[in-house]
């Protein structure tokens, strides 16, 4: 089993839709969590950190469920410009910190 | 200037050639990383460095070497390139537990 898993998608949604992605992790020593956005042939860019209490940035909401060991990303009112691949990342404390990236979920928002 | 700069952006090289990918950062962070990304496999860690005197192997270090010339500079070398090293390579830096900043990537093709 991979340490960090994501549904690869693709998710095809119309503009204005709400879409949610999950990312599961297997290591209970995971301590911090992030979502990145990656456009085609570009570098990943940090979208948001994920806090235990959940956090929101405009149309984006990230949540952490430690009991079930997953994080989620909710995008409301999808825009064409949201089309990208969304990567989750988990920092694991193994004596030193190790970051594991998920393989990403592709999102296509259609007009 | 970009926070993390990678050179070259694109490179085509022949099997058996030595090639160096360079990375510099202006974030002032101690931690630097080299990843490769292949379709469907996500980001895989090649090498990482937590300070100038610290070099660590990642999950796929065979066939690669690195040099941390200064806090701001971290280069990746392929001693004898082979076709399955064809990939998109990213350098990244990290402020402690605050997420990664990636360079714009080097697209390497080994023929």
From N to C, what is the helix and strand string of chain A? Answer: EEEEEEEEEEE
Low-confidence regions of chain B: none
| Overall 3D shape of chain A | globular
Number of strands of chain B: 11
How much of the sequence of chain A is in beta strands? Answer: over 45%
List low-pLDDT spans of chain A: none
Write the layout of secondary structure elements.
The complex is a heterodimer of chains A (111) and B (111).
Chain A: E1 4-6, E2 11-14, E3 19-25, E4 30-38, E5 44-50, E6 55-57, E7 60-65, E8 70-75, E9 84-93, E10 97-101, E11 105-110
Parallel strand pairs in A: 2-11
Antiparallel strand pairs in A: 1-3, 3-8, 4-5, 4-9, 6-7, 7-8, 9-10, 9-11
Chain B: E1 4-7, E2 10-13, E3 19-25, E4 31-38, E5 42-51, E6 54-57, E7 64-70, E8 73-78, E9 87-94, E10 100-102, E11 106-110
Parallel strand pairs in B: 2-11
Antiparallel strand pairs in B: 1-3, 3-8, 4-5, 4-9, 5-6, 7-8, 9-10, 9-11
Description:
The complex is a heterodimer of chains A (111) and B (111). In chain A, 0% of the residues lie in helices and 59% in strands. Chain A has no helices and eleven strands. In chain A, the strands form two sheets. In chain A, strands 2, 4, 5, 9, 10 and 11 form a six-stranded mixed beta sheet that branches. By secondary structure, chain A is an all-beta fold. Chain B has 111 residues and is mainly beta. Helices cover 0% and strands 59% of the residues of chain B. In chain B, the strands form two sheets. In chain B, strands 2, 4, 5, 6, 9, 10 and 11 form a seven-stranded mixed beta sheet that branches. In chain B, strands 1-3-8-7 form a four-stranded antiparallel beta sheet, with no helix packed on it. The relative contact order of chain B is 0.34. The chains are: A mainly beta (111), B mainly beta (111). The A-B interface holds A 8, 31-32, 34, 36, 41-46, 49, 87, 89, 91, 96-97, 99, 101-104 and B 40-43, 45, 50, 88, 90, 94, 97-105, 107.
């Amino acid at each position: 089993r991979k340490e960090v898993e994501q549904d690869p998608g693709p998710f095809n949604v119309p503009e204005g839709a709400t879409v949610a992605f999950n990312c599961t992790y297997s290591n209970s020593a995971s301590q911090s969590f992030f979502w990145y956005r990656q456009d085609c042939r570009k570098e990943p860019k940090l979208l948001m950190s994920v806090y235990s209490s959940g956090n929101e940035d405009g149309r984006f909401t990230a949540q952490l469920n430690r009991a079930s060991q997953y994080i989620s990303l909710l995008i409301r009112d999808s825009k064409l410009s949201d089309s990208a691949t969304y990567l989750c990342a988990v920092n694991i404390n193994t004596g030193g910190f190790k970051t594991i990236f998920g393989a990403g979920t592709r999102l296509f928002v259609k007009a | 200037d970009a926070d993390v700069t990678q050179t070259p952006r694109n490179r085509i090289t022949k099997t058996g050639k030595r090639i160096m990918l360079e990375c510099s950062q202006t974030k002032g962070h101690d931690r630097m990383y080299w990843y490769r990304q292949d379709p469907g496999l996500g980001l895989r860690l090649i090498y990482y460095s937590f300070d100038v005197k610290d070099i660590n192997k990642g999950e796929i270090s065979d066939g690669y070497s690195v040099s941390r010339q200064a806090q701001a500079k971290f280069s990746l070398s392929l001693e004898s390139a082979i076709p399955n090293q064809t990939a998109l390579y990213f350098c990244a830096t990290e402020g402690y537990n605050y997420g990664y900043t990636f360079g714009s990537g080097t697209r390497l093709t080994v023929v």
